[in-house]
Automatic annotation (TrEMBL):
It holds the Pfam family KARI_C. Mg(2+) 1 binds at D283, E287. This is Ketol-acid reductoisomerase, mitochondrial. It comes from Schizosaccharomyces japonicus (strain yFS275 / FY16936). Coiled coil: none annotated. Belongs to the ketol-acid reductoisomerase family.
Amino acid sequence: MSTIFLKSQRSLFHYPRTQFEIMSFRSASKLAMKAFRQNGARRVIPATRSMSVLARAGVMSRSAARVAPMVQTRGVRTMDFGGVKETVWERNDWPREKLLDYFKNDTLAVIGYGSQGHGQGLNARDNGLNVIVGVREGGASWKAAIEDGWVPGKNLFPMEEAIKKGTIIMDLLSDAAQTETWPTIAPLLTKGKTLYFSHGFSVVFKDQTKVVPPKDIDVILAAPKGSGRTVRSLFKEGRGINSSVAVFQNVSGKADEKAVAIAVAIGSGFIYKTTFEREVVSDLVGERGCLMGGINGLFLAQYQTLREHGHTPAEAFNETVEEATQSLYPLIGKYGLDYMFAACSTTARRGAIDWTQRFYDANKKVLEDLYENVANGNEAKRSLEYNSKPNYRELYEKELAEIRDLEIWRAGETVRSLRPEENKH
Ligand SMILES: NC(=O)C1=CN([C@@H]2O[C@H](COP(=O)(O)OP(=O)(O)OC[C@H]3O[C@@H](n4cnc5c(N)ncnc54)[C@H](OP(=O)(O)O)[C@@H]3O)[C@@H](O)[C@H]2O)C=CC1
Ligand SMILES: CC(=O)[C@](C)(O)C(=O)O
Ligand SMILES: [Mg+2]
Ligand SMILES: [Mg+2]
């Protein structure tokens, strides 16, 4: 199995362990802060994230607390991400009129109507673009599309017909289905069309998927960093999900701009550049790690430990999942981890900082194994084998039912029912 990345960079992040390393880590961060100040970029600390809370908590380093708050200037193409400059685009770079003009001669053919097809198709349609959907006639997606207002024969067609009518072919089938349908789709990708993905999977793992696009078409991706349902809900809130964009083939010479434009058209908020390889590897690692698999494992391990030592389900669930998702994690999302630590007791803060190293060390080994398994194609192989089974949906329903039936999640159902918003009386 060929490995995409033959050499892996030494880990860019080394959590300081020894007192010496901590000292040098602090002096390094002071130097970085000084360099950061000198390059003119400034960073604002949200007004609601009052300095007094942070200063009292001693969270801000002394040098940062002394200088005026720094603001990261917006609306520029280059922004500073923790000291590394990256190119970003924002949705207000592509107002609706500009999108409509740019895509005036295009028909966006959304192939597949799962979570992403639903979100991206409806957002592009609401942006006024000419969008059609192509799925298996009479299948679950066909019925779902009709429920969302797509009309058979008008903007809803069997897959092949939609591809023939489309100028930008958005392959939003499941990754396994992209492989299975490729022999049908490939001949329909005629010169001048654009092939679009939301994941680098099929193109990068071509040894397994056999997905090799024709050489005379643009091949681009826009990968929303979140569920297709959230792609839709954030768009309806007037916001947008963050997405990465990449170009695999640029025959027209306009593929880079097209990728950014379509990322905005499908409802993205801010957009950053990647490559097909980096998108698929980071995405497969993320969903198996912190985003889904890793957090599931940590929830289960903590809940089980508490229960084995006699804590009740209500106590074990609240201390593991409910407080995390309802109170503490949202603070990380709004203001960062240091803010959340500062908002908790000094007792919690001391223990959390002390135990970070143990969890980091235990998980770093797992993440290295995971990264290797993704980069060498093993995870892609596993995914294709399982998701290509004819009864893959039924198999997942059985596995998800087993998760749902675990005590932790049955307890969770009761806890959720007790939330104020669930008790309107
Ligand atoms: N889910 C997400 O939030 C994210 C997904 N992505 C990427 O977006 C793409 C689409 O993912 P997602 O929206 O989750 O789609 P799903 O994985 O849910 O795939 C469902 C779609 O694939 C179709 N399909 C499945 N098997 C076949 C087949 N054998 N022949 C024809 N059609 C088939 C289904 O049609 P039918 O109903 O007829 O079976 C349905 O329209 C993938 O590349 C994914 O990696 C990227 C970011 C996030
Ligand atoms: C929602 C998302 O970004 C995932 C987890 O990568 C996916 O659904 O593939
Ligand atoms: Mg994914
Ligand atoms: Mg993802």
